[in-house]
Amino acid sequence: MLLSPDPNDDHPYWYARVIGVFHVDITHVAPAQVSTKIQRTRIDFLWVRWFQFDNSFEGGWQTRRLHRLEFMDARRPGAFGFLDPSVVVRGVHLIPGFAHNRTLKFLLLQNSVARMPLNEDEDWRFYYIGM
Predict the structure, then answer these.
(1) SS3 category, 99
(2) CA of residue 123 relative to chain centroid, distance
(3) Residue 104's pLDDT is what?
(4) Beta bridge partner(s), residue 40
(5) DSSP code of 88?
(6) C-alpha to C-alpha distance for 23 and 117, rounded to whole angstroms
(7) Which residues, in sequence order, are bridge partners of residue 24?
(8) How far is Cα 111 from Cα 99, in angstroms, rounded to an integer?
């Protein structure tokens, strides 16, 4: 869960499933004429699969229902991405929408690393945000 960068969003947060946690060590060696100093930098990042709100479903305190998410279609640009771990607000408990069954709609590949657990070949159609 992270803060939405768009203040006009209907919901103040964005949600993603973390596929992997990584870091890279970058070494920059400047040309000899400029400097003999070697600069090393570590960059941490998360590889994520994005959720989107189900706009056909109304959730929240007024409706006394949990907000509902679904995965973004993997064929859409931006369905997967990388995040700086420092922008993550916290982890969230997502509850599968058992009444809506599973689907291959969002990720057509079976046995994908983006699907958890790895031995599953379908995603749940919807997830509810535990509040």
Answers:
(1) helix
(2) 14
(3) 79
(4) 27
(5) B
(6) 23
(7) 43
(8) 23
Beta carbons within 10 angstroms of residue 51's beta carbon: 23
13-14 and 2-3: which strand pairing?
antiparallel
With tokens 């990584």, the residue in question is 22
Q: Which two tokens stand for residue 55?
A: 């706009």
Distance CA 129, CA 74 (A): 21
Q: Which residues of the chain have pLDDT under 50?
A: none
pLDDT confidence of residue 116: 65
* pTM listed for this prediction: 0.81
In DSSP terms, which residues pair with 2 in a beta bridge?
14, 88
Helix (H, G, I), strand (E, B) or coil at 62: coil
Which pair of structure tokens corresponds to residue 79?
A: 């369905």
Q: For strands 2-3 and 16-29, give the pairing.
A: unpaired
Q: Which tokens is 74 given? A: 């993997």
